[in-house]
Amino acid sequence: MEILQNDLLLRAARGEQVERVPVWMMRQAGRILSEYRSVREKAGSFIQLATNPELAAEVTIQPVDILGVDAAIIFSDILVIPEAMGLPYLMEEKVGPIFPEVIKTMADVDKLIVSDPEVELKYVLDAIRIVKKELNGRVPLIGFAGAPFTLLCYMIEGRGSKTFSKAKKYLYSEPELSYALLQKITDSTIAYLKAQVAAGANLVQIFDSWAGILSPEQYRIYSLPYIAQICDAITEVPVTVFAKGAFFAREEMGKLNCETIGLDWNMDIAESRRLIGDSKTLQGNLDPCVLYGSFDEIKKQTRSMIQQFGGQKYIANLGHGVYPDTDPEKVKCFIDTVKEYSL
């Protein structure tokens, strides 16, 4: 059993009493830090950085050293799963991910493999092992994966989109293909997250970044059942589900076999607690744009947020990833304000 010097995050996730609120941020290992930018430059590209275990480990640990967060999150990308299944992607500067080949037919789905994480995703697992050694029990390490529906969006659309209308079209015109693809992604994701845990991840998060483009009915059909399969399968460590924009599914999320539900900044805190229930820990949900405000404004908004969440069964975070042009000093102000808050 690993002994952690700081296990606040894990205790909060499990619903145990904490002396203070734990805090970390989505996209904390990234462009807000000049130290990250210099490692990225050395790597040559985002993908070369993400696939180099030593460099990925280095940028994973940076926010722990520089910002003082209560957890590290492995530096990687949700799109490593499609790539491992046989659908590679490119990361174009100022454009985002591009898939040269996309899923169009059932034959394309049949060609995909259920990946073996120790083969196709060994570089992520190696990075986790290096991080665990380097952290030496200082804070927990978070592993993660994209939710199956969010990955389907990219695998059919081929790039980012505001509407993902091409991908959504398949839900109506090719439901059997959609089910088959979602199941294959789910099977790969379960194997991948279990391998992350075996490599040393203390907690895992499922990111459903494009949940909000679905209707409530579609979400119940094409996303929640697959997230539920993942939650049911990961029994070794606490699981967090973060579904951006899925305000309509909070009650159903309360029934998922996970420990923590992440809220985006559009989700009212009191209403969310009522809908989700008392059995889950909540995570979130400061608007990332608050960090553009003055130091006093950041402190005020952060304290107000903690008051509303109530301190226990709560992990402080933003309602989405920190924006890349945010001043690291403002980020540190947010983190320090959480850490100084008296319960």
Task: Summarize the helix and strand pattern as letters.
Answer: HHHHEHEEHHHEHHHEHHEHEHEHEH
Q: Which class do the helix and strand fractions yield? A: alpha/beta
Q: Low-confidence stretches at least 5 residues in length (pLDDT < 50)? A: none
Helical segment tally? 17
Q: Strand arrangement, largest sheet?
A: 1-4-5-6-7-8-9
For the terminal residues, how far apart are their CA atoms?
A: 29 Å
The amount of helix comes to 40-55%
Shape: globular
Strand residue content: 5-15%
Kindly describe this structure.
This protein is an alpha/beta fold. It is 48% helix and 11% strand. The chain contains 17 helices and 9 strands. Strands 1-4-5-6-7-8-9 form a 7-stranded parallel β-sheet. Strands 2-3 form a two-stranded antiparallel sheet. Helix 14 (250-253) links the parallel strand 6 and strand 7. The two termini are 29 Å apart. The model has no long low-confidence stretch (mean pLDDT 97).
Q: Keyphrases for this structure?
A:
two-stranded antiparallel ribbon; alpha/beta; single chain; 9 strands; 17 helices; 343 residues; 7-stranded parallel beta sheet
Blueprint (SSEs and pairs):
Blueprint: H1 8-13, H2 34-43, H3 46-50, H4 53-66, E1 72-73, H5 80-85, E2 90-92, E3 96-98, H6 106-111, H7 117-120, H8 122-135, E4 141-146, H9 148-157, H10 165-173, H11 175-199, E5 203-208, H12 216-222, H13 224-233, E6 239-243, H14 250-253, E7 260-262, H15 269-276, E8 281-286, H16 295-309, E9 314-318, H17 328-340
Helix pairs in contact: 2-4, 4-8, 9-10, 9-11, 10-11, 11-13, 16-17
